[in-house]
Design a protein that fits this description.
The chain is mostly helical and 88 residues long. It has one domain. It is built from three helices and no strands. It is elongated. It starts with a helix and ends with a helix.
């Protein structure tokens, strides 16, 4: 799962000159995979009693959700701009 997350982030960086809407879909997918990894990893550290790591994964999960919402909000704005330019 972590390798897929890294691969998605690599694709996002390599394809930086392509369609913005396509990049946002890949970015949301990568952020969701990061959140999934944070949830699974935090379960292990909660069982072992490593509370500092649990706190760290909580912060990672918070920023993953925050970034996903920012990307989705930006995607809606970008679609409106694309539709305006298509009408011209």
């Amino acid at each position: 799962m972590k390798l897929l997350c890294l691969f998605n982030m690599w694709i996002l960086q390599v394809q930086s000159a392509t369609n913005v809407l396509w990049k946002s879909h890949i970015a949301v997918y990568g952020q969701d995979m990061l959140g999934y990894t944070a949830i699974n990893s935090s379960g292990y550290f909660a069982q072992t009693g490593s509370w500092s790591f649990l706190l760290m994964f909580g912060v990672v999960l918070f920023f993953s959700i925050r970034n996903t919402l920012i990307i989705i909000e930006g995607n809606a704005t970008t679609r409106e701009e694309v539709q305006k330019n298509a009408k011209r």
